[in-house]
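Chapter review: from sequence to fold.
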Amino acid sequence: MAKTATKTTKIVNIITVEDKLKALYQLQCVDSNIDNIRVVRGELPLEIQDLEDDISGLNTRIEKYNEELTALDDNLAASRLKKKDAKALIKKYDKQIANIKNNREYESLSKEIEFQTLEIELCEKKEKEIKAKKLMKDEVILGTTNTLKERKKELKVKNSELEEITKETKKEEKSLMRKSNKAQGVIEERLLTAYNRIRTNVRNGLAVVSVDRDACGGCQNIIPPQRQLDIRMHKKVIVCEHCGRILIDAEMLPLPLRWLPHV
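The token string follows.
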């Protein structure tokens, strides 16, 4: 009994080249349908990604502006403290001048007062510059914040649109993905890798095409008669010498999507 079961399993697991070609065609049909569903989404995923990148960049920019604003506040506070100290020194020197006994001390204190007066003027000039920079920075932050709000609103709308479209096609896409996985189970890894590579490299995503009017259904180059005969024999996987697409017999095209060899 065990021997019979083993023998049966071996027979079921034999997959011919024709089976592989049919599975490749099945996979191509399913993948093309998935491509069409994703086309419905249009540029939305890319637009959403761009918006997310913009939002991230704007957040980084606002954070940087706030850091610069904090540095300006620190500079302003330091300047005010320096000015306060200079005024205190002037007040101190004024008191000392009232009690001086010679010209040398008077000149010395007068120079100190003059120096501290200049320090105050420099501090006031610096404070005006800092305040002007702060005002400009505040305006930039406000503008950037408004832009950020607009981008976030736009992202919310785009995400809603994508969610709506995805909801409508989710069930169909899941069904197609199951068929795709089933078809891939029939195809050996080496052939599946080649199929995926071809799909990536061609514009329309068609890796499997039939011979139509003696020409490749992908690039339209003429296929030699002997090569066409080999294709119709279904004994080996044949690719177009010009575009590299996998070629199949046109008789396979009416093959229903539900077909798959048992494994």
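Two observations follow directly from the output. The CA atoms of residues 69 and 137 lie 7 Å apart. The first helix runs from residue 2 to 12.
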